[in-house]
Amino acid sequence: MSSASQPQPILLANYTVPSYLVLKTDLTFDLHDDQTRVTALLTLQRNPQAVTDVDSLVLHGSELELESIALDDRVLTAAEYQVDGESLTLTGLPSQLTLRIVTRIKPHLNTSLEGLYQSRGLYCTQCEAEGFRKITYYPDRPDVMSEFTTRITADRQRYPVLLSNGNLVEQGELDGGRHFAVWHDPFKKPAYLFALVAGDLSFIENHFVTRSGRDVTLRIYVEAKDLDKCDHAMDSLKNSMHWDEEVYGREYDLDIFMIVAVDDFNMGAMENKGLNIFNTSCVLAKPETTTDVGFQRVEAVVAHEYFHNWSGNRVTCRDWFQLSLKEGFTVYRDAEFSADMGSRTVKRIEDVALLRTLQFAEDGGPMAHAVRPASYIEISNFYTLTIYEKGAELVRMLATLLGPEKFREGSDLYFDRHDGQAVTTDDFVQAMADVSGRDLGQFKRWYSQAGTPRIEVSDHYDEDALEYSLTFRQSCPPTPENTNKQPFHIPVKTGLLGTAGDLPLRLKDHPVDTETSDNTSIVLELTEAEQTFVFQQVHEKPVPSVLRGFSAPVKLHYSWQREDLITLMSRDSDGFNRWEASQQLALRVLHDLMQEASLATVSAATEEAIAALIDALQSVVQDETLDPAMVAYMLTLPTEAYISELATVIDVDAIHQARQYLQGRIAHALKSAFVSIYQRYDHQQAYRADARGIADRSLKNTALHYLSLLDDESWIETCYEQYRAASNMTDAMAALTRLVNTDNPLAATLAENALDNFYQRWQQEPLVVNQWFSVQAGCNLPDTLAQVKKLQKHPAFDSRNPNKIRALIGVFCNNNAVNFHRLDEQQQGQGYRFLADEIIRLNKQNPQIAARLLTPLTKWRKYDETRQQLMKAELQRILQEELSRDVYEVVSKSLAEA
Ligand code: B3K
Ligand code: ZN
């Protein structure tokens, strides 16, 4: 691609308000097999706030066939507007006008799954961020909010269900076996929240009475075969509606709320006003087909999309640089909801593990960007862990700094002040500042500076003065857009552990804010590059428990003694830090092991470290006060992905071997504890997807995992037995995963039987078949790449379906490091080549999925020289192609000089 034709970045600094407002948007969709005709009648008014180009209007449009355009009922000639592949521009316009635009589109040929497309015979839409422009010419920007009316006509037999946003106002029969429906959405919204669905769907229905007494109809639309898998989503929806009233005082605002499940979907779900469209994987759940993680995901995504009705729809984003305004806040809201529905500490551990593994890696790589980025080439590339998960951490920090009451006042003010508006992250922070009287100016750096701050902690105990001081030094490594970082405003929730538990805290020269701190935990606020806090009347040298609950998204460094970690692990009142201490302790042992010349004989010092870890884990297993889910997490070693994130140069094989070795040692040492956990478990108990049920299964399956590592085939037989007898997918998958990953002839035979049986049993269930692909793609044994390639030819594989692509190719490239990065002679660089070939294929078919799949190759700088060269060569090969903006942006940024 020549540099002149290379896509150019869009800059936040260039934002200008729209020249025209669209008061009303009346759409008619005539759905026919070979094409869809879209008629858009727009009522426009000059924007009184517009400063430039006041008489010209840019309508976005892409891949549209323009049939006609009329201004105030007069059809325009081609000389009266300019049109290119991306927009249609009109100039010399009056201050009030109507436009009637007729376009034709071809949903059946749309493989990008953006705009109007077909999934298994169903018509559906995905408009966020910029998909509406693939439906009709329109000012497709979130600060243009309009009142939509949508009329749909289609064949009555094949498309009996016709849906759009808002309330159904009319429906009826038409000639030629066709029918129509008209929907009106009374709430102004940007085009990205528009949705349309037409197809042969069944539904389950329920009701919710809001606290002001309005009755809301709730419907979940699915294919008839899936009606038995909707109850969990419906329960989750009702719980979310109730929770948002209780916790945020937010009620639902239309008479009906609909969810539609579709099989071909680029992401999890979409919060279209009153008509959420979901990936089937985020709606359908029943114990026989869905794992516990799947159940939790359904609950979280249903809640997330529902919560967007306020944080996203009623109050939306001014421009796409503000994406985290709605996404970060909504992730924070759904995380708090899940915490309230299940176990708060466990939810926090899961979220932090994800953040530290994947978001920190993003922050440390070539695609690093601020929570409010300053530029982008393709906005679809910015639906990232940074915008979502780190964005949620920023909201969490605001809640920590303000305390729960002020935070709620701030969110009330934000919603009331900006209802019906398109606003910025600054507006959000301003509402928090206004209610609390706090200066959050420095806090806003979190939105504009990318990168993960690093905090070095050191301490000093003065036993004569009975004073204990903690010194914090913060810094932040450079990232592509910002090299020089100013200090962040960081809340560090801290406690001090004495021999008898948490010590009372008396902080010198600092009034304690009782909103955010209690007697044994205090929120220290770092604002400078270096800062010291002195605690008084400390009668013994304490063990510091810093960053409780992971109160800020930072990398914390403190040289704990091994004994300190063991103390924190067994006695910290903060559950998160108990888990964190177990991970720190294990990480040290893993690092020691990675230094060993050979794992056949390890040094005495490493042996001692292993023994200490095993002792500590033994106490964890015996601690009857601990939630079984916590025990399971504390027994689970840091993942290869997390160890890799922490490494300067990732030694794929050493990490894998050290982790395998240590798991084996733990299995031997704690065998009797694991046997007793496994035997104690009531294998006959009925499945429940609640916190207790999930916790019990997770501990039992962690025990089985360790037992399967013993050199004792009876445990392999137990895995097979568990697989065969399982009445739920969690237990079946846990056992199957062990069989597939165990390098032993008996396990291989049993794995083959189980995999055959699994496919035979579940071939009619696409979501279960995806799990079947994933368990094979994730296999750590050699020859997995060959198996993955073979599975691509399997009749159940569909190279256009994003769920299938993620299940097979995504899992192999992201979750199977030893195989993806294989360097042995026959397979050297084959994983990289395989992925690059897929990306080149998908670049044309579905650019969003192609760009997303690139992630593992973008990390090339973190590997050894040989791997770097091989990975880079594949990126360069991709760059030779004619690329979509999506893929171009990721590849070019990955190859840019650091
Ligand atoms: N807002 C959508 C994401 C849209 C992604 C567009 N490429 C789902 C969500 O975050 O709720
Ligand atoms: Zn969202």
Automatic annotation (TrEMBL):
Domain Peptidase M1 alanyl aminopeptidase C-terminal positions: 563-896
Ranges where the Aminopeptidase N-like N-terminal domain occurs: 26-193
Domain of life: Bacteria
Residue span, Peptidase M1 alanyl aminopeptidase Ig-like fold domain: 451-558
Enzyme class: hydrolase
Domain Peptidase M1 membrane alanine aminopeptidase: from-to ranges: 233-446
Cofactor(s) listed: Zn(2+)
The EC number(s) this enzyme carries: 3.4.11.2
Reaction catalysis annotation: Release of an N-terminal amino acid, Xaa-|-Yaa- from a peptide, amide or arylamide. Xaa is preferably Ala, but may be most amino acids including Pro (slow action). When a terminal hydrophobic residue is followed by a prolyl residue, the two may be released as an intact Xaa-Pro dipeptide
Keyword tags: Aminopeptidase, Hydrolase, Metal-binding, Metalloprotease, Protease, Zinc
GO molecular function: alanyl aminopeptidase activity; metallopeptidase activity; zinc ion binding
GO terms under biological process: proteolysis
Functional summary from the UniProt entry: Aminopeptidase N is involved in the degradation of intracellular peptides generated by protein breakdown during normal growth as well as in response to nutrient starvation.
Family: Belongs to the peptidase M1 family.
PANTHER family: PUROMYCIN-SENSITIVE AMINOPEPTIDASE (PTHR46322)
UniProt-recorded name of the protein: Aminopeptidase N
Species this chain originates from: Cellvibrio polysaccharolyticus
